[in-house]
């Protein structure tokens, strides 16, 4: 029988380190995509131009091959029995319901994941529109597009600041979903050496 674990607010740096581990997982997926594109290029002699789909279609394709798999990883990890991504597991962190302290529900984890990935998708929205305009030979971009790009750049900073400064270390994704991240502490009996 496993001893019950208590939890406490994690340090800001433990959250950052957990995120870095998860970014390594994401970079691994991006590397797999890059290798796939390179192999397709070697086999066919051409690289598919995503802009043939238009900026909206290119963004949708990017969502399907990159953002959606990352979202599935986050959702499945945090709604699993461990209630944590690989990075959170490494740092002994767990996502819980912020009100009850119990396991977060699947809808909470889904909302948390969507809000967490929102800045990334806003950045993709602006990037594909910049690329589409630039591909026409134009170097003039609308002011609203610059605004969207700036918002996309500022949102991750705001998320990070909230995790660091908010009383319970809850970013917008946790506040929206009603969740919070806690550090697991072994119960006192787990800290004692085993008797032989």
From TrEMBL:
<keyword id="KW-1003">Cell membrane</keyword>
<feature type="transmembrane region" description="Helical">
    <location>
        <begin position="109"/>
        <end position="131"/>
    </location>
</feature>
<dbReference type="Pfam" id="PF06271">
    <property type="entry name" value="RDD"/>
</dbReference>
<keyword id="KW-1133">Transmembrane helix</keyword>
<keyword id="KW-0812">Transmembrane</keyword>
<protein>
    <recommendedName>
        <fullName>RDD domain-containing protein</fullName>
    </recommendedName>
</protein>
<dbReference type="InterPro" id="IPR010432">
    <property type="entry name" value="RDD"/>
</dbReference>
<feature type="transmembrane region" description="Helical">
    <location>
        <begin position="20"/>
        <end position="44"/>
    </location>
</feature>
<dbReference type="GO" id="GO:0005886">
    <property type="term" value="C:plasma membrane"/>
</dbReference>
<feature type="transmembrane region" description="Helical">
    <location>
        <begin position="143"/>
        <end position="165"/>
    </location>
</feature>
<feature type="transmembrane region" description="Helical">
    <location>
        <begin position="56"/>
        <end position="76"/>
    </location>
</feature>
<feature type="domain" description="RDD">
    <location>
        <begin position="10"/>
        <end position="178"/>
    </location>
</feature>
<dbReference type="InterPro" id="IPR051791">
    <property type="entry name" value="Pra-immunoreactive"/>
</dbReference>
<keyword id="KW-0472">Membrane</keyword>
């Amino acid at each position: 029988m496993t001893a019950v674990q208590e939890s406490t607010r994690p340090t800001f740096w433990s959250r950052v380190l957990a995120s870095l581990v998860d970014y390594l997982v994401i970079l691994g997926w991006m590397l797999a995509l890059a290798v796939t594109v390179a192999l397709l290029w070697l086999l066919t002699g051409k690289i598919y131009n995503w802009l043939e789909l238009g900026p909206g279609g290119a963004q949708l394709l990017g969502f399907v091959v990159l953002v959606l798999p990352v979202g599935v990883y986050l959702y499945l990890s945090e709604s699993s029995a461990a209630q944590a991504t690989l990075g959170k597991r490494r740092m002994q962190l767990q996502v819980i319901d912020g009100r009850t302290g119990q396991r977060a529900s699947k809808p909470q984890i889904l909302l948390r994941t969507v809000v967490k990935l929102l800045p990334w998708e806003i950045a993709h929205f602006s990037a594909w529109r910049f690329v589409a305009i630039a591909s026409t030979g134009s170097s003039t971009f609308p002011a609203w597009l610059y605004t969207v790009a700036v918002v996309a750049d500022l949102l991750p900073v705001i998320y990070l600041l909230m995790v660091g400064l908010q009383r319970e270390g809850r970013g917008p994704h946790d506040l929206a979903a009603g969740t919070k991240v806690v550090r697991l502490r072994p119960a006192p009996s787990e800290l004692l050496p085993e008797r032989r």
